[in-house]
Structure formats: C-alpha cells, structure tokens
Amino acid sequence: MSKNQYRSNYCIELNDTYINSKVKLAGWIRKKRDHGNIIFIDLKDHTGVVQCTINIDNKNFEGIDNLSLESVVSIEGNVIARPTGSINEELASGKIEIEISKLKILSKAEILPFVMHQNDLGEELRLKYRFLDLRRDEMQSRLKLRFEVIKMIRGIMEDKGFMEVQTPILTSSSPEGARDYVVPSRLNPGKFYALPQAPQQFKQLLMVSGVNKYYQIAPCFRDEDTRADRAPGAFYQLDMEMAFSTQEEIFEILEDLMHKVFTKFRPEMKISNTPFIRIPYKESILKYGTDKPDLRINTHYHDLTHLFLQDCPKIFESVINNKDNKGKILALPIKGLSKQTRKFFDKMQKLAQDNGAVGLGYILFEPEKRGPLAKLLSEEVCNAIREKADGAFLVADTEENLKMYMNPILQQVAIEMDLIEKQTYKFCWITDYPMYEKNDGKWEFSHNPFSMPQGEMDALSLDPSEIKAYQYDLVCNGIELTSGAIRNHRLDVMYKAFEIAGYAKEDVEKEFGAMLNAFKYGAPPHGGAAPGIDRMIMLLADTENIREVIPFPLNQQGQDLMMDAPCEISDKHLKELNIKLDKS
C-alpha cells in the first residue's frame, strides 16, 4: 500500500509471516485489559482486530491506562509471536501480537452510551447512536454485504445489456399508490414537488425515448406505516424496464439474477432452480390465503366445497348457499396433527377468531376419528382428507373473509409444528393478477394502473371482475421481492382502462399528461419490474427486520433520532416558502 502517516498495514494483513517486522496500525481501542505491568489492547480497524501490548516502562503506558474504549489511536511496534497458550485460532492475527513502541492518540472517546459487544440493545438507543452501532462487527458485515450485492447486481445488469440512467428526485405528485412526501417550491409559491414513490413514469418515458434496456439502483420515497419488511421514508430498488419485451423475458432475466446473487452470498443454502414456480393469483389465494406464499411450508389449503354440495352439515349451509356463490369450504391437511394437544387446538382457535374467523374446526384420524367435526363430515370428505394427512383444520366462509385468516393460521401452524423447511430460499412468481377490485361498490385498480390488460382492448369489454392484467410479483420465503408488469403502451386501451376505474379522459390527461403526450409519438411495447434491494439484503443477512440492513433507517414513528428529523424550521424559512402553519 502507499505510504500513509497513520498506518503501514491493515489489521487483517498481519499473521505469523510478519514476526520480527515493524508495523504501524490505526484504529479504535475495542477492548483493554490491565494486567498490572502490562496492558493488552484489542485494536480494531475496518478489516479486523489485532492484539497489542504495552509495558509499564513505556512512556505511553499511563496515557493508555486512562484512555477510554473506542478512542482512536495510531500505534507503532514490533510483531511478535503470541505465547502458545494465548493463541486465538478464530482471528486471522491470532498467532501474533504487536509490542507497542510508539502511540499517538488521534481522538479520545467519551464514555460510551452502551457496551459495543452487547447484543440486547434497544432499537431506539441503537438508532440514536447509529454511528456507534455501525462499528459493530455484525453491522459492518451487513454494510459490506449490501455493497457487494449491489456491485454484483450492477455487473449482471450491464452484462445483459442494460444501461443505468438516473431519474429525477423532484417530480409531481401521483394519485396512485402510497402517500407522497412533498417538497414546497420557493420559486413557485403555493406549489409542491413530490419525492418519487418509484421512477415508474420516467422509466416508461425512457422506453419511448429509445432506450432499449434501462436499470437504476433507485431511491424511492413513500410516506407509509412501518413494518418488519417495510421501512418508512426511503428505500432502494433495482428499477428495470425493457422495450419490446414479454413477461417471460423479464422472468428469465430476474430469475438468473436472483439465482446468481443468492448462490454467491449464501452458497450453503438450497435455492430454487430456474425457472421459478408460477402460481396464478387466484390459485395462490385459494391455497395459501395470500399472494405472498411461503413455499418452505410443505402444505396448503384444499378446496373441498364440491364435496359438500349434496351432503352438507348444518353449520356449513350458509356458506354453501351463499347468494353470490363465493362461499368456500377449505381443508388444511397436516401430517402429525393428531399428535397435538388440546392446548394447541385452543391456541389455534383463538388465533383464527382474532383474525376474523367465526371458528376453526378440525378432524383427526389417529388413533381413531375424533375432533369437533368427526361426526359431521361425510365419509367422502374424510377420505379426501385422510389421503393427504392424519388430520386437518377446516375453514368455511366467503372468499373475501377467508383471506383474513387463512395465512395467519397456516403460518402459525408451521411455526408451532416446525414445518418450515430450513436452509432454503423458495422463489415463486405470482401471476395473472386481477386488473380491478371492488371497494365500496366501485371498481379500482388492484395493482399497477399502467399494466396492460390480458387481451388488450378486447378484454375491457368483459365484466371487470374477469379482467386479468400482465402483472406479477416475485416472492421468496413469504416476502415480496418485486412487483412488475407488461405496461399499457396504447392510448385507447389506457383511456378505457382508467374509465372503468372511474377516471374521465380529462382526469387521466391532467394526472399523467407527460406520459400520455409521449405515447402519442410512438411507444414500443415494454415491461419491467423493481426488486427491493433492502428486502434482498434482509433475506441474505437472515434478519427479520429490514432496518437491520439499512445504514441509517428511520424508527417506527418515521423519526431519525440521530439527526433529529423531522424537525421544525424557522419562521424565516417558512416565509421564504410562502407557508403558514396551522397547528390547531
């Protein structure tokens, strides 16, 4: 390395080949142990740790003795072999130590707000002192993982012919999706920019502009509530779009990328082979109660409604006779269910009711037929269940109500009975999303309003409930990694699609004028997707909280405790922006 006034080497470089060499290191004092006539120091830099010693006869001894942990120092000394009994095989430098001859204090640390190796720190404390939290080995590892993953993604995308283009951060507000973060314009009083929820319109405009394959590691901003796999404020996604593309081509590109990235960074894990499983949306809802199924759980719901049409117990009659023909009776067969205790079944009953179910029935077959439904179900139903497992839960309700509690039941059963396959990443595509859904009696877009309906203009003459879109999600272990679609590039189809959702032509032109204007001058068929970088890192880092892999996240209340944001601004600043606050 080039000559540096603070160091000649990094900690990770030093091993027994350096014995009898003179070296210079710089870093933080992570640990300190006073043995009377000698002080042991663990000096840490961004690469690793080296043990250093200083004797009482060294003029710097007293200064080090009084120096607090995490102070920054530069030391010089000789590399010597550790005594046989103190060799640390877990460290790259575990066979040597540095006998300090010179020491320079570069920055003295105050008393720390927490112990650096403590594992049970509260999140609020960690976020307030995030700069300290990030020094910890675990967090340094996640920062490095994030960097390496993004670096690899860039290489893969560029090898596939994609060009990176940066899109604007200040743009106009969108009527679709989550709430916008808005920014007042000083030069245009009374008007506001919005931070982009995604570069959706811009990447489609790039397709019209003649860009063939676009990508970007894009920051996105959504003012939405936090949860374990979603952080408030900003997040990053691999935004991509292709001209003249089909759904299958996009699948192939992302499958190859995901398989390569996950294989590279978690080689010990079992990873889905390509092509990934495709599951139509309606099938996913009926089998798992969600469009984010965790395929590590090797069981799912089975529709037994048809077996109840001729021989229906009274408790299920209201479901079978549902006037909209949307009642379903589903069985969740589970191997080993007969071995569970009454306490387990009571717990599952409460879980189901807490999530909106009237109740949760079950039947068991070992050692004999038993359970609340044992005397109510026909032999035909019992045989259908017995073929799959020694017991099953049964749920009966409208399709809409079933979605509220099917997946919570499945997830909790899998946790309680240890049914989740370990050491594996299970990917699947959810396809054929409905174009529309009904809300308060009105049709709304169920996914992305810019998606192409399957069948284009011909499809829009159907009942809205029957229209499917070229929309898709990529799911891994129950976590949505990406949403995407083949876009609607035809103005006539777009106006009609928005009309069904209650938008007049002039409303569409007002809200999406730039894109519609561009489409008048020749728009190629195009499509894309946007995998979430933070969620990918969360899975690769094997953590359940997305804030663990974001360098400087907001807390659950959308606050940056370290930078004290959001904060009030001065009256002078408000006046410049032509803003008056009403705090009543």
TrEMBL record:
UniProt-listed GO biological process terms: aspartyl-tRNA aminoacylation
Gene Ontology CC, one term: cytoplasm
Positions of the record's site feature: Important for tRNA non-discrimination: 35, 85
GO molecular function, one term: ATP binding
SUPFAM superfamilies: Class II aaRS and biotin synthetases, GAD domain-like, Nucleic acid-binding proteins
Residues binding ATP, per UniProt: 222-224, 480, 532-535
Region described as Aspartate: spans on this chain: 200-203
CDD domains, alphabetized: EcAspRS_like_N (cd04317)
Main location: cytoplasm
Cell compartments where the protein resides: Cytoplasm
Amino acids binding L-aspartate: 176, 222, 447, 487
Catalytic activity: tRNA(Asx) + L-aspartate + ATP = L-aspartyl-tRNA(Asx) + AMP + diphosphate
Functional summary from the UniProt entry: Aspartyl-tRNA synthetase with relaxed tRNA specificity since it is able to aspartylate not only its cognate tRNA(Asp) but also tRNA(Asn). Reaction proceeds in two steps: L-aspartate is first activated by ATP to form Asp-AMP and then transferred to the acceptor end of tRNA(Asp/Asn).
Assembly description: Homodimer.
Similarity annotation: Belongs to the class-II aminoacyl-tRNA synthetase family. Type 1 subfamily.
UniProt name for this protein: Aspartate--tRNA(Asp/Asn) ligase
Organism: Candidatus Cytomitobacter primus
Phylogenetic classification of the source organism: Bacteria, Pseudomonadati, Pseudomonadota, Alphaproteobacteria, Holosporales
